[in-house]
């Protein structure tokens, strides 16, 4: 019986690690609730920002999070910036972008966990930069649901 007691802690840990990916928590209205779609190791999220400005207009964009800086990029007409990441397990992941063009400047949250992970873009966050501002598309409805206007 002694060998079983010696390894019982290890056995319990292995069972926990086996079962943990099947159970997790999500935030709904800032309350913790069970959600079988989220696992301890969150799924990857893909973000794409398209330069849909008028022909021949470049877009300067700088996107970052607390931990990652994607660097300042100049997107050619019809060019795009694309990246992926796994949100942190605390539900606080935030990526924001600042951009400038001939229409002005603007900054916005391109990915905010509480807004996006279980709602508007759980897998793919798509943004279109146009002459009037930045349009965000809801992945589930395929409708534009967010808009940020240029500041001249």
TrEMBL record:
InterPro entries in the cross-refs: Self-incomp_S1
Signal peptide (UniProt feature, chain positions): 1-24
Pfam family, one: Self-incomp_S1
Entry keyword annotation includes Amino-acid biosynthesis: no
Compartments (UniProt record): Secreted
Coiled coil residues, start to end: none
Protein family (similarity comment): Belongs to the plant self-incompatibility (S1) protein family.
This protein's name: S-protein homolog
Species this protein is from: Nepenthes gracilis
Lineage: Eukaryota, Viridiplantae, Streptophyta, Embryophyta, Tracheophyta
